[in-house]
Amino acid sequence: MDIFLQQIINGLVQGSVYALVALGYTMVYGILGLINFAHGEVVMAGAMLALSALTALISWGVAPLLALPVSLILAMAGCMLLGFGIERIAYRPLRHAPRLAPLITAIGVSIVLQNLAMMIWGRDYHAFPQLIKNQPHYVGGAIINDIQIIIVIMAVVIMAGLMIVVHRTSLGRAMRAVAENQHAAQLMGVDVNRVISITFMLGSALAAVAGLMVSANYGLAHYYMGFLLGLKAFTAAVLGGIGNLRGAMLGGLLLGLIESLGAGYIGPLTNGFMGSQYQDVFAFFVLIAVLVFRPSGLLGERLAERA
Amino acid sequence: MSKLEVNGLQAGYGGIHAVKGIDLHVEPGELVALIGSNGAGKTTTLKTLAGLLNPSAGQLLFDGKSLHAVAAHQRVAMGIALVPEGRGVFARLSVAENLLMGAYSRCDQAQINEDLARMYALFPRLVERREQLAGTLSGGEQQMLAMARALMSRPRLLMLDEPSMGLAPLMVKKIFATIREVAAQGMSILLVEQNARLALQVASRGYVMESGAITLSGSSAELLGSDAVQRAYLGG
Lengths: 307, 236
Ligand SMILES: Nc1ncnc2c1ncn2[C@@H]1O[C@H](COP(=O)(O)OP(=O)(O)OP(=O)(O)O)[C@@H](O)[C@H]1O
Ligand SMILES: [Mg+2]
Description:
The structure holds 2 protein chains of 2 kinds. Chain A is mainly alpha-helical. Helices cover 73% and strands 4% of the residues of chain A.
């Protein structure tokens, strides 16, 4: 088996998920200058909602190939509502407060959502039902299975769609205008609050997709899964340059690859002293390295322009 | 009926009273100047009219309709446009995108395209810079873009906040020629300027504002001839 190729594949799959989640962080940051630390919980909510919908649909005898997209759409709708509510309740009243206030609120929202999820879905791991055969395919000594292929294709399609919305539509222009100058955007007739709500909802819809992807890929969902995933995706957004959409995608893919290659080679590199269970530390090494050497990220602007 | 009528307008920032009860009006098709020195409250007045700032007292009527509780973005759809102080172009959007932002509240695509063509005819400089990011334009070009962008909303009242600020004399001349042209087409305009002579040369009437109050008003000729204006603003 070709370990290198295998880790590249795993990295791309995981990176696609990070990229989708990182986009949510970066879109909100771009428009409000706010780090929505509750975003990871939205991913978790997406996974849980999708799983609940899926279980219910299957028990009613709905065919898996129909149940999957339907539960994805339900999860997206649920997360959009959640994202809308988070902004409305937790962030909008603090729009003009000092920057620390919404940051602390974000952590509060995150804890509230985790606990709510624990009350609704319990503390147990939920197994993701095996719905499709998930056929493995062999490419050059490595394995990629159906779910992984679907994850990568969906992520690419969604990201391309998002880029089209942001760069080619009137809504996207308004989003970029609001990100740059809210007063001037208002003078153009833009309802700034509406655009901000839509931004949260778009980011949350991507989070729902990502949530379903990870739980399908690992076969598990858990009320706590949003925490680490959210932190890593945030790292990816910072790595790419927070506020920059292309940066979030690049950062997500890179982080996925770094983690995966790191996990694959850390054993031999440390003479077996450290094993692949240390995979998670790579994300945070990357975060620290970026903050030290290139605080504005790979594609980010100089920070002065953003102050 | 006046295009714009302002009665007893007061506005400020927290404890600062920047506008202390002013009355003014703009008739349909009229170009009115609002002049005054730094900190007089001119920008505050325009911001309040555009809806970016809530008045603390007073009445604003546009076409006889109260603007009370009408949000800034809704005023654009009603026909009020402001070219803000410092222009406020979207630096990271292209020139063409900035113009399209001006038409954001419209959905008549065919006429939007017509208006785009008219703006490029009015400001030929913008044509070759269409795809360029607005942040890369010179100050004068940005002022042109800001004006064209405001006109893209098909306003019925155009408010300009110091269009001459920071521009070279030749560019100021160009901008003012365009203001004249737009006014000649029947637009109602409220023009704020520190350059009093220039403003009064294009306006038919004017108001002089000092520390939040209107201290003088009259036809441009009267104001240009008045001793007070001569001394305070025209260096004569
Ligand atoms: N954002 C703000 N916060 C607090 N005070 C402000 C703010 N903007 C303006 N002011 C104050 O309100 C008063 C009026 O300011 P305004 O900008 O309306 O004056 P102006 O006539 O437009 O002056 P200029 O010709 O210099 O542009 C000034 O005393 C100013 O310091
Ligand atoms: Mg001013």
